[in-house]
Amino acid sequence: xxxxxxxxxxxxxxxxxxxxxxxxxxxxxxxxxxxxxxxxxxxxxxxxxxxxxxxxxxxxxxxxxxxxxxxxxxxxxxxxxxxxxxxxxxxxxxxxxxxxxxxxxxxxxxxxxxxxxxxxxxxxxxxxxxxxxxxxxxxxxxxxxxxxxxxxxxxxxxxxxxxxxxxxxxxxxxxxxxxxxxxxxxx
Length: 187
Description:
The protein is mainly α and 187 residues long. The chain contains seven helices and no strands. One of its GO terms (molecular function) is electron transfer activity.
């Protein structure tokens, strides 16, 4: 006779695969987390600009490189948040993860230089490269080198500025690695 359509406890008809709804919810959540990551990275660059323009702490070559990595993470996260399928999201999360890894290496080097003040960042070697990048010509007040890596600025809550940057990159790296691992089988 007539078969009654059974329903899933969520109200979704049982004839439709519930994994489709779960995948959409997971993807939506993932996209929201990517937007949050982008906002945090942009806020960190905003904090660096505050320190530069208000506190008069001139950025060194490694500071500028770290800004680039934070902005790359933000750009990849925002682009990933616009995708409606897992492959595109995963690709952009992987690019953001690589940017976070580059940021970790740069910030760790900067921390090493700050802890060993007799060691230099190689201002003469890095400065022309960093200043030669296109954004340094488009926004020189934001992307031009004006300081030395070994210049000690007052720590914030006992942690040097490159240390805070390192923490930010590690948090971004761990979050991105965890989400890539957790959703590695998502379609």
